[in-house]
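Anyone up for a design puzzle?
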């Protein structure tokens, strides 16, 4: 596969934006009655305002596995998972999963003579091996400790298997359900749910290099999973599908969705000589209703590729599968969807870049997943309607309340998936950073972030450091104030003017009147005179700061951040007598 050069990507992005009038009217309100929240309540909001809906459903998912959540053990920190092979059978009649999971891992903090795996306590272990020989094990809560066949030193790789059975429905979102009179099997493992149905090192900082997937389900069901479908074998009463995910993947993104789906196919074509398959798995009753949105997916991929670099799993596929969960889940190469509005589909698709390609190293930094995906909704609006549509979308995400974008307590599901902070304010961090850096540098920084951390897991500091390297600017204050700090600036501006130098000097006093923290920020000051409009950029960092600006004619008006690049409120802008 050929990735387009950076200059071509930038040109494509420019075409997407400049193809629409810059002064297009603001997008009208688009009210929609959303599907029910986990509480059963239905809300009517702008159809582009999807974060409260998606965040509520993901919080509900995390709540169900919160008891199983725990940090990586000291033993787990001493080795890196390299490869998993899941060979599992799903039995809907008993809500049971059984089979064998094989794992290879490389030791980094040896010697290591045992391996701790995350596996929910109600799963029964039947057998285990290490190095091909039978192995013994012990259990402590949701941790399975397997005794290795010998001690392994740094750089060595151990090879283990666990054979087990049990019901994964006791915790987490794992579904054996009947939908429209037909059997459905589905999973959703974010944040700590993989351990509820298969043994693994269930930590987002450790991506396996690849995963082999063999899922056996009752005959008549079609299974969708990660990567490429290698084979389907009819066993009579059951059918086994073999999937191969050859890109690095975190455990919570491994998934199953199995149902008598209606499968439709489309193609994304990054060039006349290249194509990637798109597979849609829908309930037969849903096909007609979702067709219009699904027809836009290839254009969404193209729009995002123009800004973020090529679709990151181009050698495999993009797909999505319908399931019985209210929101969506960005399973790698095969999103699971319970709702199909345009901006939900765009949000989940953007996660293939930010969340799947680059994953937050832990859930303190979840905004690197959810804030980026929410920002992707605005980029999709911009691709279709220019800056006015982009701004209308981003304005729906304004949040002026308390709390940091960084999550202090990663075990608190309401805080991790807080739609105001992890989603909406996170998207505003990117919106503001775009203006601070300028369009070209901002999107160059995203490409550099992808290049440095693609197929890995990252933190806020990793993203900050890439942005600093690309821009040559010190961005510590920006990230400290907007990601780790709270609230927003409140500006008050007063100004006077006097003839000077053949024009007029405008003396501007810019104050930050908030009581919490001061913000270090470039601020656009737009001055209107009889001869036109001039925008200056002042670098504000104090409670009160005076700036001297020169214009050709007597000023008739002054505006602070007229185009809305700062998450702020205005106290007042007045001319001193």
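Challenge accepted. My sequence:
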């Amino acid at each position: 596969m050929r990735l387009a050069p950076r200059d071509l990507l930038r040109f494509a992005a420019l075409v997407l934006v400049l193809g629409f009038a810059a002064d297009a009217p603001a997008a009208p309100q688009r009210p929609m009655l959303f599907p029910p929240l986990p509480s059963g309540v239905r809300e009517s909001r702008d159809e582009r305002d999807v974060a409260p809906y998606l965040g509520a459903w993901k919080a509900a998912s995390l709540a169900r596995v919160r008891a199983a959540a725990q940090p990586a053990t000291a033993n787990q920190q001493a080795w890196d998972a390299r490869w998993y092979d899941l060979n599992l059978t799903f039995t809907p009649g008993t809500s049971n999963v059984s089979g064998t999971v094989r794992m290879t891992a490389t030791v980094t903090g040896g010697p290591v003579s045992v391996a701790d795996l995350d596996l929910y306590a109600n799963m029964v272990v039947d057998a285990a091996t290490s190095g091909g020989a039978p192995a013994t094990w012990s259990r402590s809560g949701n941790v399975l400790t397997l005794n290795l066949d010998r001690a392994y030193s740094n750089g060595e790789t151990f090879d283990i298997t666990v054979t087990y059975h049990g019901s994964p429905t006791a915790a987490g979102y794992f579904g054996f359900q009947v939908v429209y009179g037909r059997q459905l099997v589905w999973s959703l493992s974010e944040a700590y749910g993989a351990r509820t149905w298969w043994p693994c090192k269930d930590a987002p900082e450790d991506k396996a290099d690849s995963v082999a997937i063999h899922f056996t389900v009752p005959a008549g069901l079609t299974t969708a999973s990660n990567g490429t479908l290698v084979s389907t074998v009819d066993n009579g009463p059951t059918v086994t599908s073999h999937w191969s995910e050859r890109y690095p993947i975190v455990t919570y993104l491994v998934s199953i969705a199995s149902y008598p789906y209606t499968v439709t196919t489309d193609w994304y074509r990054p060039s006349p000589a290249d194509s990637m398959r798109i597979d849609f798995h829908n309930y037969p009753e849903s096909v007609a209703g979702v067709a219009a949105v699904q027809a836009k997916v290839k254009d969404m991929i193209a729009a995002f590729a123009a800004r973020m670099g090529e679709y990151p799993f181009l050698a495999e596929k993009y797909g999505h599968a319908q399931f019985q969960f209210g929101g969506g889940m960005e399973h790698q190469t095969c999103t699971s969807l319970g709702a199909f509005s345009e901006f939900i589909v765009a949000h989940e698709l953007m996660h293939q870049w930010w969340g799947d390609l680059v994953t937050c190293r832990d859930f303190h930094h979840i905004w690197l997943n959810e804030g980026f995906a929410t920002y992707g909704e605005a980029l999709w609006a911009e691709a279709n309607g220019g800056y006015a549509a982009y701004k209308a979308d981003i304005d729906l995400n304004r949040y002026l309340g308390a709390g940091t974008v960084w999550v202090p307590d990663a075990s608190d599901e309401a805080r991790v998936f807080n739609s105001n902070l992890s989603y909406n304010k996170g998207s505003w961090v990117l919106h503001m950073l775009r203006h601070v850096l300028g369009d070209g540098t901002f999107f160059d920084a995203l490409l550099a972030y992808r290049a440095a951390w693609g197929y890995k897991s990252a933190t806020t500091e990793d993203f900050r450091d890439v942005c600093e390297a690309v821009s040559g600017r010190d961005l510590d204050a920006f990230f400290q104030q907007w990601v780790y700090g709270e609230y927003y600036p409140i500006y008050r501006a007063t100004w006077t003017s006097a003839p000077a130098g053949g024009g007029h000097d405008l003396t501007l006093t810019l104050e930050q009147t908030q009581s919490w923290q001061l913000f270090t920020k470039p601020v656009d000051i737009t001055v209107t005179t009889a001869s036109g409009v001039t925008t200056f950029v002042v670098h504000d960092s104090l409670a009160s700061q005076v700036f001297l600006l020169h214009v050709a004619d007597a000023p008739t008006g002054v505006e602070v951040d007229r185009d809305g690049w700062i998450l702020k409120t205005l106290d007042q802008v007045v001319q001193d007598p």
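A detail worth pointing out: DSSP finds eleven helices and 31 strands in the chain.
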